Amino acid sequence: TDDDTFSDVFCENSKKLINVHLFALAAKYYSLSNLGVCTPLEDLLEALRGDNQGTTVIKTDEFMNNKKSHEVQVMSELVDNIANYCGIKQVIDIGSGKGYLSSFLSMQYNLKVYGIDSSNTNTNGAHERNRKLKKHWRAYQSRGRANLESQRLEKANDRPVESEIPCKAIAEEPSNSDSNLQSQDQVTIQDLVPSFGFTEIATSEINKQTGVDLVSCTQSDESKLSEEVPDILDVLPVDAVELFSSSQCNCGELCEEEKVQRMASLKAKANKSSESNLYFPLTSCITAETELSDIITDLEDCMMVGLHTCGDLAANTLRIFTAKPEIKAVCSVGCCYHLLSEQFENQEECLEEVWGFPMCQYLKDKGWCCGRNARMSACLALERVAVGQMLPTESLFYRAVLQVIIEEMYGVTKSDRHVGKTFSKSSSFIDYVRKSLKKLELDDSKLPDSCIMDYYEKYKHRMDELEAFNMMKVVLAPCIEVLILLDRLCYLKEQDNIAWSGLVKLFDPVKSPRCYAVIAVKKQSCF
């Protein structure tokens, strides 16, 4: 694209927007789906599997809502393939919430999973759900196998003669390769990563360093969906669940006595269970400095995962991954960008502080800042709006007018308190304002109903203007998300111990708007 293509979006003198159509085209051009920096999920799975066949997978929509089912089904398959490639059986699920992903990884793929969440309520909920699903799991397995066999028979009838499809494998060093590997079609990192921009440079550096062609975050928003999920979702064997809580020392270390007790309990539980699939819900606060061995006493070579890790937790997951030699791979899908801490947002320099953004040295050197408004915009779902799921214009209008009221009537421009979901619980604008003022601990007795309605009438004619403004924010949202995700990817590219890292679109963005995963695998010399 010519550098001048989008030069006419804004007026050169006033800097005002003068070409909305060109603005939308520019936003689309700089969105992640158009930049070509993502690795296709199908290519990644094919390269990880080699000539291994997939597992018979149980459909999760029988015991999860549509959104969660879609997320867990797709991500668990990818995590299992990465774990198999790395030769590991232990998974740490950060911000595990109610344990939807953790449970399924354990039961469907026989992985040993530790689900860590900061909320005791979530941990207890995960334990109870896992206890219940044991009763239903074998029935789900039998039904899944029957469905798969039925599909195979249908395919056999449709196509009596199937063509041979050559398997693609990952080219590794010949240290433990077999003769078959050399004759197979090989999927290398060059095949998986787009060949332009910073990714091309990073790929070149990786190949020089390793000589190996390697394929390519209340802490989880899963708790927000818990009310929508039927009770039957309650995954995991009764005798395979051990519930721990380190709530008394959330961010600190366990004492030696607690470590001994935990290890003894783990060993006893493992000896009692005849099944290899174990899931352990834990309660602990995770920071960039967290020592996992203080939380998980039998920590071994493992991978970290996070399905919609909230705010800084997504960044800290990547930092822990790069710092801890036991963690061989990571697959992290972040969310809640508005909760990210920013190093340069308030111009406060603090060398010892760990920030959610920026992560990479490139943006740190430039002092890059998004700001809360931009990060809030990054959370919007363009794809949902595009299919007709419109923005809640009335509630946004209520919130905007409320902002004017508290500034003009109370002199408040900043508050640590939040209005929350007051709109859905309000019968009118007056009711909304009064409930909001109480939440903000402001005296509403000085504000008569007539005054509140005067504000409403004053700005009512600008509701369409507000809707247009918010639609422009939606259009811009993917561009801001690109910046945050590429910052995380660049951070991984800057590390010396990583063989491959990439961005992968895992989910249907209409079902799950935060659909991109940051994935990385360490060099084999680190194994």
TrEMBL record:
Signal peptide: none annotated. Residues 67-343 form the Methyltransferase domain. Transmembrane segments: none annotated. It holds the Pfam family Methyltransf_32. InterPro entries: Methyltranfer_dom, METTL25, SAM-dependent_MTases_sf. PANTHER family: CGI-41 METHYLTRANSFERASE, METHYLTRANSFERASE-LIKE PROTEIN 25-RELATED. This is MET25 protein.
